[in-house]
Amino acid sequence: MLPSAESSGLAAIATSNRQLNQDAQQIANPDNQNVTNPLLDLNQAKLLTEAGADVLRTSNQMLGNLFDMFA
What we know:
Layout: H1 5-28, H2 36-70
Helix pairs in contact: 1-2
């Protein structure tokens, strides 16, 4: 069975949240000399969050359109 759009959007947001937490720990670690990769990952996490939100928004709009058609 295919995952629903809502679960895909929420999964993308959850994945980006985990990535943000990992990156924040690496950036805050005083022993970590290389913070370039975690800082670049922050941008990827932001894009993933935006993509997940777009999936949820589009799914809600499509559902609203279906309700309008059958109302």
